[in-house]
Amino acid sequence: MLKSKKMLRAVLLAGSAMLLTVPGVSAEPAPATEPVALTIQTSAPHRLAVGVPEGWTVDPADPNQLFLYAPLDGPEDDFSENMNFLRIDVPAEQGQVTIPMLRQGALTGQQQLAQQFDGFETTPVEDVAIAGRPGLVMTYKMSVDGIEMTGRQWYLLTGPQSAVIATVTTRRATFDRYAGLAGRVMESVQLAEEAVNQPADPLAGNAPAAGNAPVPAGPVTHDSPRYGLSVDLVNAWRVDESNPTQLTIFAPQEGGPDNFGENLGIRQVPKPVAEGPITIDEMRPIMDASVAQLGAQYPGLQATEPAAGQTAGAASLMMDVEFETQGVSLKVRQWYILLDPQVAVVATYTSAADKFDATVPDAQAIVDSVRLLR
Fold it and tell me: What is the CA radius of gyration of the chain?
């Protein structure tokens, strides 16, 4: 076991070092053989909060990276499948962390791994949404000391000055067994200072983590001073305030977890008074540019023309967008709402396409309730 741990640390350090030189997933992850519950644990030394699978061991010995080890399969098993997490912080004076920066780090890391390990093969670095946050992912294979191994590495943008690199490493024969569980763990990752509203783990009987109890059916007002917004929640939709730029609200998952969590993101877009009031006309080209950017990223994207109307008692534009990513068809509805002469509110509802019609009425009701906190 000690030999395996040392070997794995070398592998993971090589992979995570790729981002240090710079300051979605190639396929839907296969489900774990037997789903297990996650328990959110915060590691103060690593400044991270992570969902730890039942039966796994937390190893905080490494000062830079937090390690989680799966239980061994038996007395003859000398290799523990594992995940590791590395938080990266960039001082403001050095600029911001961006997806292009993370992508360059990932590509550099691929080159380093290819030089270090025999039989190294990798998928392209792909864009992926991780619990509604932007990120990248790649999956690779290699041989280490004669052991055929498979790894999947995520790059999660957690804010303008921070990112998290996470890696799951398994024997090649056990990768499908652990890939789905690792994906769920990745969805749970938060910065320690933001780990106040934790999503409940569906496999733990929807038991809420502290500060994140599901709301009862019927409108319940949620005031968020952090984002300067107030909304009325309906039908047990759940608030998550871990995103640094937007209030995120998740739809309930009926019948246990699935491959995509329908969610609504709401944020303010202020305009300086000196530049005059915000108008509907200036919002149209912003929406057009957003569609053009998405279209370049997702071939086959379809979008409706922005339609003028009333939302939350104010003038607004609304459009629907449909596209496919990583084999999943998504449908997005976006509203631009003039709640104040100097403040627009952008609300974005993202859903699996086959669930959109059933869930968008609740999203619409929440958006219609949005108010600015004064």
Answer: 22
Reported as a pLDDT band with limits 50, 70 and 90, residue 339 is very high
Mean per-residue pLDDT, 25-29: 32
Spatial CA neighbour of 88 closest among 20, 170, 1: 20
Distance CA 213, CA 196 (A): 11
Tokens of residue 319, six digits: 């459009």
Asked if the model's pLDDT at residue 367 lies above 90, the reply is: yes
Residues 6+ apart with CB under 8 A from 359: 251, 262, 351
Q: Which residues of 128-149 are buried (b: 16+ CB within 10 A; e: fewer)?
A: bbbbbbbbbbbbbbbebeeeeb
What are the strands, taking DSSP E only, across 109-255? 118-122, 126-130, 133-144, 147-159, 162-171, 190-191, 220-224, 229-233, 238-240, 247-250
User: How many residues belong to the chain?
Assistant: 374
φ, ψ for residue 327, nearest 5 deg: 80, 5
Please tell me whether residue 69 adopts helix, strand or coil conformation: strand
Question: pTM of the full predicted structure?
Answer: 0.48
pLDDT confidence band for 84 (50 / 70 / 90) = very high
Q: Which of 218, 211, 215 is nearest to 242 (CA)?
A: 211
pLDDT at 235 over 60: yes
Q: In which order are the strands placed within the sheet that holds 38-43?
A: 38-43, 48-53, 190-191
Please provide residue 338's backbone torsions phi and psi, each rounded to the nearest 5 degrees: -90, 80
Q: Which residues contact 46 (CB under 8 A, 6 or more apart)?
A: 60, 64, 65, 66, 85, 87, 192
SS (H, E, C) 299-342: CCCEECCCEEEEECCEEEEEEEEEEEECCEEEEEEEEEEEEECC
